[in-house]
Amino acid sequence: NLFNPTNATIGRAQGVGTITNDDRRTVSMAFGQFSLPSVVEGNSGQRQAVFYVFLSAPANVDVTVQYSTQDRTATAGSDYVAASGTLIFPANSTTTTLSVSVPVLGDTDIEPHEFFELRLSNPTNADIERAIGVGTIINDDGPRTLSINDVAVTNDFPTAVFTVSLSAVSNDSVVFSYATADGTAKSGIDYRSFSSNNGSLPPGEYQTTFQIDIIADNNPLAVHEPRTFFVNLSNPVGATIADGQGVCTINDHIPTFCELNPHANGCQSPAEVDDCPITRASSNKGTINLSRQFRDEVLAQTPRGQKYTQAYYRFAGEVVELLVFNPRLLWRTSQALERYKPIMQTLVSRAEAPTESAQRAAISVSPQDLEAVDDLLKDIEAKASQQLRQTLAEIRSDLRDSQVQAEFGVKVGPGDSDLPSLPGDDGAKGPMRSVSTYPPNDSTMAARATEAYGNLPLRFEINQGQVAREVNFISRGNGYTLSLTNETAFQLRRVDVGPGFGEAVFNPQSDIRNPSSSLLRMKLLGSNPTPRVAGLDQLPTRSNYFIGSDARSWRTNISNFSKVQYEQIYPGVNLDYYGNQRQLEYDFTVTPGADPATIKLGIDGANKVEIDDQGDLVLHTTSGIVRQRRPLIYQEVDGIRQEICGGYALQKTQDIGFQSQGSYLVAFRVGAYDR
Question: Same topology for domains 25-138 and 145-251, yes or no?
């Protein structure tokens, strides 16, 4: 732990050392020079499939491990004899390899090659490194036929590997010819043609492989439809051909973020291509929302900052309501935001700095600055709920905490401040920066109220019969209706209601009848049709629908939530929805071992879909533009977010389950990370 710094501040105060235990042994199934057993079954009797189990090093105590067989396609009792038991590596012995024999039963059945497992479990005085070995029972009965498999590669992969299999092994060699043939892929452009008359399977062998060279695309950013070519088998000797054509599908390489943005921060050095950091902002920073940058690039980097972000989503609605109905408080808050905007910009710029010293450069503020912020928070606290008062009290305490100040690189003390000292209004202490030192007029207040409304968190209503049965949650706002279902990421109906604040009152039917409305759907392709769906972070508000004169049709006291979660929407992937009145956000959380490539979104109802220079996904509709910001992809390691390169990948398609001819497929490019 670092403490008591002089002439510097502490950026990260604690380092963690790991002591690796090199005395612990491991046991493992065969690998390397000891191949897993492949046994020709024979017509009768038994033959032995021999597995080997290794101990990493001798021990001064007995090391034991249990083993047992388990079916795959082979069946114990008819194809092999089930086996189980305990292996013992004696103490102080040089023996580090033991074997397990499993009898394979001969028969005259005509059947495919079959497989079974030997599993290790319950070790003592050791850990298991490789727990499963697979045994192969090779069929030698019936007519001998050849088959070739299909393969798929990307156009940055050097070879396509085909496997030719023999249905039953022979006592003689089996030979065959093979040759490539064009499909939509063209030889000399997409792959290198090849032919041979020397394909062979020696006696007792049932598989062989060969490679066809793939030609790399000179432009890795070019977009193509999948292309195919064929490998055809012919002229067999010693067997006949059952499946004589293998198909190779060549898909586009998915570009990394650095390939798409070669001049981005951290992407210039070839040595960094495999682990490139996402550039933290576009070169055109004026188009990027400063508060979003501050959240993602400053607050999100520390547990404390993440706590502040969570507090925003929890209490933003209450704070905005307080400000809208307290004009003086709203005005003072807007002055504070204007004054301290340079601080946010500096913190964001510092996070982007290329050198560590620049990233740790302190920002100077005066004690009067802290007094002004504290005074504002105290006045908001006085009108807040008990939960919000508690949160604001914690934030006010953090303002005075020197350790927290050091954590964010803020230096508080007399002398020069990085903020200009300006006069305050008569209702607030300390300096406040503004274009005017007088309270705004009504039109200005209305504009600020509109801005405040836009920062409210989305309210998701649970469906209690107020909308169609397939909808789980619905959110309504000024000019849109947002629906969430199991198979649709979201369904957004937008209505042209004009600018301003509070100009539209929503009737559940009105937007459907409006000829200026547009419907945009984003579908979760290949997703779990029955995920567990739950509303999170319940809000104090309730929704009520009094439609018609029949009270039985009314829907009242409907719960509202600021977040909705879909569990296991894909294997090992959860999906969370949240946001504010101007922007829907959603997070895919990928658990260890899950594959982010399974996430695919189909878009329908857009006139045009594109990825702009900032990496944002832009959806053009008849009612305007819907923008989804460039995804922030990260992995948490020891509580610290580590960014991963990636972004959207877009392909136009006609086969995503929609009727429209203008449908699009959106996937995510995710760079290398610890899976």
Answer: yes
